[in-house]
Design brief:
Number of helices of chain A: 0
Strand content of chain B: over 45%
Radius of gyration of chain A: 13 Å
Helix content of chain A: under 10%
Helix content of chain B: under 10%
Distance between the termini of chain A: 37 Å
Oligomer: heterodimer
Largest sheet of chain A: 7 strands, mixed
Largest interface: A-B, 28 and 26 residues
Distance between the termini of chain B: 41 Å
Number of strands of chain A: 11
Order of helices and strands of chain A: EEEEEEEEEEE
Number of helices of chain B: 0
Largest sheet of chain B: 6 strands, mixed
Strand content of chain A: over 45%
Shape of chain B: globular
Order of helices and strands of chain B: EEEEEEEEEEEE
Number of strands of chain B: 12
Radius of gyration of chain B: 13 Å
Chain lengths: ~120, ~110
């Protein structure tokens, strides 16, 4: 049973470029969460999506960041016009339902470096 | 609002000794509490969770955690530490009405041979 998959594992972008991070949830999971981990800090919630719907984006920066989870294919976190402060590890998690008792299972993360 | 505090940035313990990693939380309503472990350049691995019922929860790799409602704590414990337990440990909380996990800043555990 494959776990949560994320790609790429490492991504290097220059300031002003776009970054696209992909997440495929565990088989049978239709709920996806994105978190960001800055150096020396814990994970911060960004957005929660179900298929074709954004449920909670309260942790997303207002500008340059967007997320989607289409009917077919992986969830995408998109960062436009990246800046050095966007350098971080971005983790995706999935769960089988939105029930608060469900465990969120995490992928290996994408480490974004902005030059 | 929900929050988690891990008061120790680092915990050092000798191999074979018991270990404790501390966590306190704040949440409205009943808490759902989780422990995850992160190895260098890896994702988070789920260790255990408390939802309801018995205050002592047993999880993966011999870890357990004790939920204490009066002290709003959920400390992670293991009777005998292994060198391979050395990693970064995160406590997280989620309230019944929330979709998001709120994490502590993490505690680096070093088990000394």
């Amino acid at each position: 049973n494959a776990g949560v998959m994320q790609n790429p594992r490492h991504l290097v972008r220059r300031r002003g470029q776009e970054a696209r991070l992909r997440c495929s949830p565990m088989k049978g999971h239709s709920h996806v969460y994105w978190y960001r981990q800055l150096p020396e800090e814990g994970l911060k919630f960004m957005v929660y999506l179900q298929k074709e719907n954004i449920i909670d984006e309260s942790g997303m920066p207002k500008e340059r960041f967007s997320a989607e989870f289409p009917k077919e294919g992986p969830s995408i976190l998109r960062i436009q016009q990246v800046v050095r402060g966007d350098s971080a590890a971005y983790f995706c998690a999935s769960s089988p339902s939105q029930d608060g008792t469900d465990t969120q299972y995490f992928g290996p993360g994408t480490r974004l470096t902005v030059l | 609002a929900q929050s988690v505090a891990q008061p120790e940035d680092q915990v050092n313990v000798a191999e074979g000794n018991p270990l404790t990693v501390k966590c306190t939380y704040s949440v409205s309503g009943n808490p759902y509490l989780f422990w995850y472990v992160q190895y260098p350049n890896r994702g988070l691995q789920f260790l255990l969770k408390y939802i309801t019922g018995d205050n002592l929860v047993k999880g993966s790799y011999g870890f357990e955690a004790e939920f204490n409602k009066s002290q709003t704590s959920f400390h992670l414990k293991k009777p005998s530490a292994l060198v391979s337990d050395s990693a970064l440990y995160f406590c997280a909380v989620r309230s019944a009405g929330s979709y998001q996990l709120t994490f502590g800043k993490g505690t680096k555990l070093s088990v000394i041979p």
